[in-house]
Amino acid sequence: MLFQVRGGVKLSYRKELSSESPIVRMPTPKRVCVPLQQHVGSPAEPVVEVGQWVGKGQLIGRAGRGISANVHASTSGTVIAIEDRMAPHPSGLTQPTVVIEADGKDRWAELAQPVTADFPLPVTPKELSERVAAAGIVGLGGAAFPSAVKLDMRYKHSIDTLVINGAECEPYITCDDRLMREAASEVIDGVRIMAYALAVQHVIIAIEANKPKAVKAMREAAKVDHSIRVVTVPTRFPMGSAQHLLLAVTGRETPADKRTAEVGAVVHNVATARAVSSAIRRGEPLISRVVTVSGFGVREPANVEVPLGTSVEDLLAFCGGLHPVPTLLIGGGPMMGATLPSVHAPVVKGTCGVLALTASEINDGPQSPCIRCGKCVTACPAGLVPVEMAQLIRRGDLQGAKAIGSQDCIACGSCSFICPSHIPLAHYFSFANGKLGDLDRDARRQDRIRSLIQARNERTAREAEIKKAASAARKAAKAAAAALATAAATADATEATSSLLEEST
Amino acid sequence: MEPNMMLHAAQAVAAIGLLGTVLGVVLGVAARYLSAPVDDRAEAVVAILPGSNCAQCGFAGCKQAAAAIVEGRAAPNVCPPGGASTAQRVAELIGVRLAVDGADTALPTVAWVDEERCIGCTRCIRKCASDAIVGAIKQMHTVLPEACYACGLCEIECPTKAIVMKPVMPTLATWHWPKPASKRPVATG
Question: Which of B85, B98, B102 sits opposite A442 (nearest CB)?
Fold first, then answer.
């Protein structure tokens, strides 16, 4: 039973470029640059020193405060620097990064004790989520939200459903497709571990209809557990958005600015499930991931298991390099991914794809005026009115845009894609939501500073009062002393006169 | 004739007295229920402004600036240290729409102490309205960037020009896409 999902667009997928290339393991590069923040939340704190030898899988960054994730060495070697290096981010800004010169031996560090027993597992759910956290696992679909936090949602909300996201709705990307076909039993094992950790009754694995081979492989592997259902969902972007997938398979709609846990479900990606299986069954932390390298600009499109921290340059070289044509480099999928600042950026936990797109693949015509066709309104999966919001933002009325829901935009880019006038609608919303975030942060800062100023004003007033009181007291004392002196003097004088009078009488 | 005149006088006094009483009651009721509302927005604006009286706006202090904003003699974004968020709040309060462009807003700044030049005189500390500068006599001073709102009073006060206002660079956590150009240039061959 499937439920109707609002909006969305039909895309040309071009998955055939890489969908039939089996996953190949890339040899460890000479050097890896592992950023200390590859996840949503606060950055990890480095726990190694420059010059130190680290084993493969050794903890190099401990999770920071609040929501955060551990970071591990993806190969053995020497830490040659802990410094700011380019982040795989469109801004081209830097972030703290641990640089490891590989010794070529790929020697494992001491790993966590594996749990090899069959279901039901002899460990508590709490222990499982702790192990997942220790392994530094984050959502591998692209959002990179720490997985252990999601497994702990059961302590805050009542969760009855686990949805496994195998939709892979972005064009070009085939890493999850290959993983489901080649490592179905590992994925299913990870799914069962997560279902056990969450203590859920229903497990639904949702796969888009354009991946029949993956559906077949997963159905076969899922026979070991009857609580798992493998369902096919329509091929329509953005089916892989957690909220939309949940709506499609359960009919539950997640309220705006809420998480799916609030409606009793947790959504995890298939690659995350496989990482969980590796962490529990073999004690291996998350130190590599499957990345789809594709686009007409790449000589040999492929699905590559890449050690985290490998530079995009090394990865592209492994795939035969680029064709000598101008290309646009994108980290992630073409719809929601972002341009890479350079080939020196590293592959991180959230990198599901590296695409080199040529001009023929990009619909980049000159912008023309809006003809108010309403296509963006039909396409918006969040039920917003992109045309109206973009107009308000262009005029500088961010509050107006916020009032009609700009902050509920999921940044899927369907509106920009469908717009016949090539208006960069999603770009407007990214700008507006970023700016609104700026204003919020600034307002909180101003509030804090205003309270500091008030505290100082009150303090100085108090100090002035004390000073005034002290000087008044001094004055009073002086006056009293003076009065006493005059009184004494008068007393003397009266005495003198009286004695004189006495004498005269 | 005499008693008649007395009667007339009494009547007049009573009539005027009655009239006065009635009108007094009417005026009293009107003052209570039909009075024009007092414009107390100035006070609300004061509550939004930083309250340090740094005078960068050109008025003597925050109170005077607030009065000027409410009377339309000053723009809602007249307060430089208050920044964009304060301007937005003020604009919202007085019912003015303030366009946010993103392109024309300068980077926020914070004060920074050049340790080569600081002589530890504490003059800046005494000027700082938000207690953002730490130091003691003949000791190196430093600015807590979280508490500094860039009013610039310390920069003026410093006898050795050791304090400069430095822009706060965006980080991965604060960066966002700039506003799209309203007309993109047509790509040429």
Answer: B85
* Exposed e or buried b per residue across A149-187, where buried means at least 16 C-beta atoms within 10 angstroms of its C-beta: bbbbbbeeeebebbbbbbbbbbbbbbbbbbbbbebbebb
The correct answer on CATH 3.40.50.11540 for the domain covering A15-106+114-318 is yes
Whether residue B187 has pLDDT greater than 50:
no
pLDDT at B35: 78
- Cβ atoms < 10 Å from Cβ of A116: 10
Judging contacts by C-beta atoms under 8 Å, the chain A residues touching residue B177 are 90, 427, 430-431, 434
* String of DSSP letters for A320-344: T-B-SS--EEEES-TTT-EE-S-TT
Asked whether the whole model's pTM tops 0.80, one would answer yes
Identify the weakest region by mean pLDDT among A101-115, A463-477, B26-40.
Answer: B26-40
Tell me the CATH number for domain B109-167. Answer: 3.30.70.20
- H or E segment and range at residue B167: strand B163-167
Amino acid at A407: Q
DSSP-derived letter for residue A16 is G
**Could you tell me the pLDDT band of residue B104, with boundaries at 50, 70 and 90?**
low
- Residues in chain B, total: 189
Chain A nearest CA to B124, separation (Å)? 15
**Fold adopted by A366-478:** Fumarate Reductase Iron-sulfur Protein; Chain B, domain 2 (1.10.1060)
> In this predicted complex, what is the ipTM?
0.82
How is residue B169 written in tokens?
Answer: 């660079």
Are both A15-106+114-318 and A366-478 of the same fold? no
Residues of A in contact with B101 (CB under 8 A): 396
